[in-house]
Amino acid sequence: MTVRVRFAPSPTGLLHVGNARVALVNWLFAHARGGEFLLRLDDTDTERGTDAFAQAIEDDLRWLGIGWDTFARQSDRSDHYRDAFERLRAAGRLYACYETPEELEFKRRRQMARGEPPRYDRAGLSMTEAERERYRAAGHEPYWRFQLEDGDVAWTDLIRGAVHFEGRHLSDPVLFRTDARPLYTLCSVVDDIDLGITHVIRGEDHVANTAVQLQLASALGADPAAFAFAHMPLLADVSGAPLSKRLGSLSLSQLRDEGIEPMALAGLLARIGTPDPVEAVERLEELLPGFDLARFGRATPRFDRDELGRLNAALLQRMPYEAVEARLTALGMDDFGARLWLAVRANIATLAEAGDWYRICRGDLEIERQEEGFLAEAAKLLPDEPWDGETWAAWTAQVRDATERRGRNLFRPLRLALTGREHGPEMSALLPEIGRTRALYRLVGRESAVAGGGVVVPLGRKKS
Length: 464
Ligand code: GLU
Prior knowledge:
mainly alpha, elongated, binds glutamic acid
């Protein structure tokens, strides 16, 4: 049996970390078993769904490294849903209803007030033909509900273990709206059957749907045992509160804009909720060995944005220059160079921050000089180029001897004058990147550098 899974987002918004986790786990599950991954756009909600969101979902998945073997969209499959309508109707499992949303809401409130679970009272089912005729004559179109059976529905969930629902406690779901458009509950089952899905891995907000959908699958002539289910607990934030309110700021496109590397996010999402350590990877395939759905627990996993930031920095810290060269070029830094990258990569939280060090080493810097006398003395001792990784140690040793300064008193003003910052990468690596001309300008000011040292090389920001 070929494993076939699907990730089925509705294009009514941007993908967020919760969706991405479900997509990633599906992808890993399929790839760990030599199976197939289907991307299905659940786009029957034409009021809220847009092509722009559909496109963004595809872009975000690709960014995360997730490709698909098959693609389907529900808006292309209306004939199949129509066909299901006919079959369910012929089997006596669909019935027409005429209540307005207000009437349904009224019934719901009454049930709640009585302490009963809100469940459709099947008024539509017990209508007489004459009553229906009256609605029709008055120009009302019906919507359609699926009549559930009373029996139990049970399955062994790959994450939750034994799950059990009593059919008589479930509410008959609406499958077709008054305008005859099918709803997700139906479409999803029709698609899962037609497209040969073997494992449905999705969020635990769909557990009750599964009970309904299993009955629907058998009413449509499929064997419900052909599907395995895994319902993943939804993510919470660090305090344990549902993530739902913050999902906008945790969309993939937002994180990408903030400079998060896709493999840092993937490394985190593949492991939270399991006992396994979180680690940034270079390719999704590295997450495959040892991947096992059984390692995902039922407890609510916490998504920690700071942990993602740390993972991102850790990933950048070991990235070779070749892995970032094209992106740095695209950011306008085509002469970044491997040496500067190696000097700065341990000091950045995002790739964009490399740009700050690039400007410090390759551009002009307005620095407010402190301790000018000391800096002028140090400037006199600046050795001639060529400079290398030893230059800083040799120069500062001379400055130390000449000024009798030591430690912080010696190094801090030099670092501050040369980089404009208190902290940063090793000065031994930065100094050769800054170069003698810039160093001199920064230590004594451009005018005195030019007048005193005969340095006339104009410095500017790199042509763009
Ligand atoms: N479109 C549904 C959702 O986004 C899909 C759920 C499912 O995987 O069946 O929640």
